[in-house]
Structures are given as C-alpha cells and as structure tokens.
Amino acid sequence: MYPQLQPLIPPSFQRLRDYTDWNSVIKGYTSQYVERDYWVDACMVEGQIPAELEGTLLRNGPGLFEIGGTPIGQPFDGDGMVCSWAFSGGRCFFRSRYVRTDAFMAEQEAGRMLFRGAFSLGNPSGGRFFNPLDLRIKAIANTNVVHWGGRTLALHERDLPWELDSTLCTLGRTNLGDTLGTGSDPQNFGSHIRTFREDDGSRRLIGSTFAEGLTKGTLTFLEYGEDLQLLFRTTVELPGAGFGFFHDMLVTEHYYIALENPMRLDLSKMVTQYALGRACLAECLKFDPSKRTKIHLIPRPGRSGKTVNRVMLETEPLFCFHHVNAFELEDDSVIMDCLAMRGGVDFGANFGNLSAEFFQRAPWRTALTRLTLDPDSRRVNVSRVAEQQSMEMPSVAPDCSGRPYRFAYVTSSRFVGPKGWGPPQDIMKVTLPPVASAQLPADESPAESSGRLERWSPGRDSFAQEAIFVPSPSRGNIGNRRGNEDEGWLLAPVFRSATMTTDLVILDAADVAGGPVATIHLPHHIPIGLHGTFTEAYLGPPIDDKSPPKEHDIRRGVSHRGVPRYADMP
C-alpha cells in the first residue's frame, strides 16, 4: 500500500458556494461565435513569455452550445473549436477555428438541429417529433487535437480524424493513408493518443479504435512513426466488452493497456426512450457494480528485451475516464495510475439538472488511484494515493509517457476532504510515491517532497483547464537520463467568469505554487474545453508579419474557405 498524498493546505470541507458561484460555471459554456487571428500585444501579457518557449499549443473543445437558437442539453455535444497559441522569439500568435465537419456545415446551413448527440437528445427530424428510425450520432471533432508528421488532426472518438492546415482551416476527413480502413464504414479513431520515446530518441504515436457490439468489443491499437506512417496494427477481441467505454488507454515499453469499465447496455431504455428521442445514447449505458473492472495487457509488437503475453486482470468495480501513466518494473509487474471513480458514473448529467448541490450528492468523485498489476499471478493491488482531492485532466512530461516518472499535473477541485468536491478550478502538481524497483527518469534520487500535492489557484469563479507540460529545450532528453523531469512549463487556459475572458497561464513546472511566470490575457472568452497537445513546430505566421487582426462571426455564414466540401484526405 502506498501512503496517502498530503495536501499542502489544511483539510477542510466547505460548501461549494464558498468557493464559486454555480452560475459562473455555466458561463464557461457560453457559445463563442467569433473565429480570430491576431498577434498578442505586449499590453496583453503580464510577466514575460519565456524566450526558450518555441512551438505551438493546440487546444480543442466544444465551442457552440446551440443550433439555430435551440440550446443543446450537454456541453460534450458542442461543435469543436480548435485554438492555437504559436510561440516564437518571446511572441505569441493566437488563432481559433471551428472544425468544418459535414454535420457542422449541414446544421449551420439548415439553421436547425439535424442530428442526435451522444450526450443530449438533439432532434434528427428537425421538427416537432423525433424520427425513431434515425439513430445517427453527430460527429463533432471536439475532443482533442494533435500535430504529428507535419499534419494537424482534430479528434473525436465517434469519427475519423479531421485534418486542418497550419491556419486551422479544415481540409477534410482523413483515414490516415487507409490505415483506418476504406469504403463506406471505416474505423473510428480514439480521441486520446499516447506517445512513447524510444531509447534511440525517436518517437511513436499510439492511437486506438474501438468497435462496439452486443456480445463483444473489438479494440485496435495503431502505432505510427514520426512521419505518421503506420508501423504496427494490433487487433484484439474482448468478449462481453461491447460497452466497456474505452475512452482512454495507456502504453508501456512492452504493453498496450486498456481498462474495461463495468458497464451494461439498458436495452429497455434503448427501445422505449432512446428510439423515441426521450433519452440520449449515453443514458442507456449503466454502471454495473455487480461486474468487475477488467484490465487488458496487450503485447506491443516489434519490441525487444523480453517476451510478454496477453493478460486480463480483474479488480473491484471502478470507472475511469482518464488515465495518468503506466510503467513496468524490474519484477515484470506494471504500475498503472488512473483517476478512478468508486461509485460509478451517471451520463444523465446535463445543463438542466446540474447545480451546486449536485457535487455533494453525486457519488462519482475521482481519486488518484494506483493499480499494481502482476501479470503472473493476475493480481491487482488498488491503492488510492490521493483520495482527499478530486482531480481531472491529467498530463505528464511527454518523455516520461510509458516510463517511470515522479510528477503528474492535474486540474483539481478546491475542496479538500473525502466527501466534498466541485468543478475543476486549480492546477495541481502531484509528486507520486516512489517505487523501489523503478529507475527514475532523472539523475537525482527522489526528493524529500515525494508524496506532496502543490497547487496554484486562479481564484474564485475562475476555472483552470488541462495543463500541458512543455519541456525546456535546455533540459536535454530525459530518455537518456539527462536533466530534471519537471524542468519546463505548464500551459493552461483559465476561464474568468467575472469578465467573460480567458487567460493562458504559463507556470514553471518546478514551482507550480509560485504562480504564473507569464499570463496572456485574451480580450474574449474561449469556452471551457477538453484536451490538447504541444508541438515543437511553430504554426503561426512569419515573425515579422504585420497583418491586422482578423475576425469572422459564424452567424454571418460559414464556408470551407475554398476547400472542396467533401475532401477526403488520404
């Protein structure tokens, strides 16, 4: 068992209203109709952007919460808006664009809802009554975005990737060179990707697809090189896992890791409510505490050093949206860190039923949980190493993905205590408990601060979002055991409800509690988003560009910017 990580502030439990006004949370889901391009002026920067910070932060998330004046019921179903902050020479260029998916274009041109959402009802008939035979789910490209092999891809797990150019204009749907199948029914591509740095310094991108079925699920892992050429495809069938909700996955030196959530399909609700437009698809998925959570260890092809076998392990019923990291130990066991809910999940939560009291009664509060997996005995040891703090949106240093590590970065509720929780507001650095047989990715031994939680709070009615770690160029390659793991910066948007604006904060990852080294104050808001990545590629205009700011209000009409509407990129 691992010791509980201790917060740096005294444990206490207070009411949500003592931390934030619930209405300020809802303001974070206000539609943003204007797409923008502009240089960040010096007057918009508090502090100083690090001169070494070179590259582009890409972020994705729902940006539109109504169609034709009709509000959608759940923020996860909002059309995807991709934003970028491109850094070079201490300057920053900001862009934002809606992804021109076919569904987005069709609804904008029709001026009304045409599709169901996965988490809200929608109206596929476009009129007063639902069409019970129309079971299409809107593909919205709103969950993640990654730049790899010179290509920028917007991701949503119920669709293929959508490719964007360097100005974030939509090029079209892509099957990544036929690696995701061809024909009328290609595979979807998961919204979560993982990277892995090889010992020679080269990098891999690992993605996954999942095909649901009534009696089984089919899970496929795809491993790409730095040029986005497919290196390996691994497909496994998982009996009884058709609705295991494989939203995220992990990778280690020799394994792909998938956690199968204990879910079941409510067929009665599917027939009597979903088909008649009285429930969304997600509401038909139910957490089943009578089932066990299953962890699948699937061998990565082409690995050297040792041979491993496919293994399935079971543990107590947990639900996980997001995983933190995983790595292998010398005794062949595997450490898997995730954000787990013990009480299950309820997909019926939406704008209509959320309230301040919701956070006090809902049982599905996350806890940072460490699973120690023994493939030989097939035993799982569960240890909740940070149960006092509700956390979400984890990230780690990219060079530590799949390898032993010390630090994780999360958003957290401002509550401390085993029962209280609320919306994510703060950014927290977690120093994980040491593992005796793990070789840490730095020259020094574990610091005395192991087992600590360090936080930075943006203040009342402000909401920090996923913090992306960007290594300092002077740090060196952690894979070669040079430099410190936390030598770099955290980049995170912060929504300010009082002013209806969004900041981008740049934190020193070695001193999170010290606050931002720079804050970029945008003069407008970006709705509370989901996930993003950082690329070393600079995706802005030339540094001497003097073009004036540009704005486009989508309510005046949308276009494909000269790109063929149904372009199918290879």
Automatic annotation (TrEMBL):
Listed Basic and acidic residues bias regions: 543-556
InterPro entries tied to this protein: Carotenoid_Oase (IPR004294)
One Pfam short name: RPE65
KW Transferase (keyword) present: no
UniProt cofactor(s): Fe(2+)
Annotated keywords: Iron, Metal-binding
Chain positions covered by the region annotation Disordered: 438-457, 540-570
UniProt KW Metal-binding keyword: yes
UniProt record similarity statement: Belongs to the carotenoid oxygenase family.
PANTHER family: BETA-CAROTENE DIOXYGENASE (PTHR10543), CAROTENOID OXYGENASE (PTHR10543:SF138)
Name by which UniProt lists this protein: Carotenoid oxygenase
Protein species of origin: Coccomyxa subellipsoidea
Lineage: Eukaryota, Viridiplantae, Chlorophyta, core chlorophytes, Trebouxiophyceae
